[in-house]
Amino acid sequence: MEYSEKVMDHFLNPRNVGDIPDPDGTGEFGNPVCGDVTQVHIKVKDDKITDIKFKTFGCGAAIATGSMITELAVGKTLDEALAITRDDVADALGGLPPVKLHCSNLAADALYAAIQDYQAKNKDV
Amino acid sequence: MKQIYLDHAATTAVDREVMQAMTPYFTERFGNASSLHTLGRDANQALTRAREEVADAIGANTEEIIFTSGGTESDNLALRGVLREHKGHIITSSIEHPAILKTCQYLERIGCDVTYLPVDADGLVDPGDVESAITRETRLISVMHANNEIGTIQPVNEIGAIAADHEIPFHTDAVQSFGKTELDVRKMNIDMLSLSSHKIYGPKGVGALYVREGLKINPLMYGGSHEMSIRAGTENIPGIVGFAKAASLACERFKSDTAHLMKLRDMLINGMFDSIDDVFLNGHQAKRLPNNANLRFMFVEGEAMLIHLDLKGIAASTGSACSSASLDPSHVLLALGIPPEDIHGSIRFTLGRENTEKEIKYVLEVFPTIIEKLRAISPLTRR
């Protein structure tokens, strides 16, 4: 199985790794039983994602998609961020091996979960 | 970058002496062993010598060795050759190689019954379970000698004795144990035994099935009367000669090989335990192949470790599905009762004759950093 150069780069040098101490939204997606879990923290100001951090337990592809989603989402409005699809993440990485498209492409779902968490907490605002 | 090859359970490089022994049989000594002319008789003599060498290596008689294309064919021939009436009961273990498990599933589809025995947390089959699984319909017991993933060595002596008591043929897949543990088919009451050449520094595409004299099995392949009429097809003389050479070298070097492998294995396992937290050994600590170190690192995933290792020039393998086409966690590690989420952190190092202490030191130098890096980005690391 071959990973693209971009996947390898994001796997070996993941961007925006870690936690946000006081996040506005937190989301997690995946299942350790399947071997992949991605967690996303976001900071939101004026409806825009101002900071985003991720952590991943999983294979090279799962780590690379986690890293890539942080680059795709930062600076976006929540609606724009919600429009990011799994395919967008895979495309931005120069493609993923077919076997990884379903099992390891979890980052977009983790981001939705983080945004939903933020929206649930801020219903009255 | 020079590769540090720690995946000898997958395959090995052909030994130079083996290569030398094989070479003439591709060109000037190319005869068909069935031909009556000089070249044919020369090939036939090479075949006979090879059969003697392989038989000697496992304590068998010459005419009890059937050369095949490898371990998978040998396993298929053993099971399908005995269960020839498409009915009857087989006892096997739940941690066999797919060459056995998939064959058993096929036999179930055509009308046989199969009992898949459980194993304990170290991967051991309980011989008592074998005995209690025996029914009047039991035609075959097949339990592997040593497991390919975790290296656990089964109590084949005891299982062989039980099989003999009940007059049921006993087959064992010795593909991984050959050359690494004592093997004597007579002492161990083994009726059929599968061997492969490419795991013992021989060429790929050749192996053997030992079939005890008097045990009748049906062929899978029909044609000429090669291999005691059990395996038709012109013999692969260069491959068979190479396999036999590899087998006799394995016997010659048995003591020094196993001592060397055990030393490196223990150095690797102990080194990992000394430098990394939350690590476990998969398989039995003592009843274990001398070259197998299968370790489980919590909070990280196998494929990610493998890629990092590969970039450092180290070739290993994983019990995690993510590195292969299949996405299911290892059936062997599941059978040990390890939670699926932990199975993903397993990695298998299998050592070989040419590995050195220096190489193991290098692995121990780079591996803790890889684990540290992956744990730092894992949400499962103790929160």
Structural class of chain A: alpha+beta
What is the architecture of the largest domain in chain B at the second tier of CATH?
A: 3-Layer(aba) Sandwich
Biggest sheet: strand arrangement of chain A = 1-2-3
Summarize the amount of helix of chain A as a percent range. 40-55%
Q: Can you describe this structure?
A:
- The complex is a heterodimer of chains A (125) and B (383).
- By secondary structure, chain A is of the alpha+beta class.
- Chain A has helices spanning 5-12, 60-73, 78-82, 86-92, 98-103, 107-121, and strands spanning 25-31, 36-45, 48-57.
- Chain A has six helices and three strands.
- In chain A, strands 1-2-3 form a three-stranded antiparallel β-sheet.
- In chain A, a hairpin with a 2-residue loop joins strand 2 and strand 3 (48-57).
- Chain A is globular, with a radius of gyration of 14 Å.
- With 383 residues, chain B is an alpha/beta fold.
- Chain B folds into two domains: 4-12 and 254-376, Aspartate Aminotransferase, domain 1; 16-252, Type I PLP-dependent aspartate aminotransferase-like (Major domain) (Aspartate Aminotransferase, domain 2).
- Chain B has 13 helices and 13 strands.
- Chain B has helices at residues 16-22, 38-58, 71-82, 98-109, 127-133, 156-165, 226-230, 237-252, 254-275, 302-311, 331-335, 340-343, 357-376; strands at residues 4-5, 65-68, 89-93, 113-117, 138-142, 170-173, 192-196, 207-211, 279-281, 292-297, 314-315, 317-318, 346-350.
- In chain B, strands 2-8-7-6-5-3-4 form a seven-stranded mixed β-sheet, with helices on both faces. A four-stranded antiparallel β-sheet of chain B has the order 9-10-13-12, with helices on one face. In chain B, strands 1-11 form a two-stranded parallel sheet.
- In chain B, helix 3 runs parallel beside helix 4 and helix 10 (302-311) packs across helix 13 (357-376).
- The longest helix of chain B is centred in the last third of the chain and has 22 residues, at 254-275.
- The radius of gyration of chain B is 21 Å and the shape is globular.
- The model of chain B has no long low-confidence stretch (mean pLDDT 95).
- The chains are: A alpha+beta (125), B alpha/beta (383).
- Chain A binds chain B through residues 1, 3, 8, 11-12, 14, 17, 28, 32-39, 55-60, 62-63, 66, 99, 103-104, and chain B through 299-304, 307-308, 311, 320-323, 325, 327, 329, 339-341, 344, 376-380.
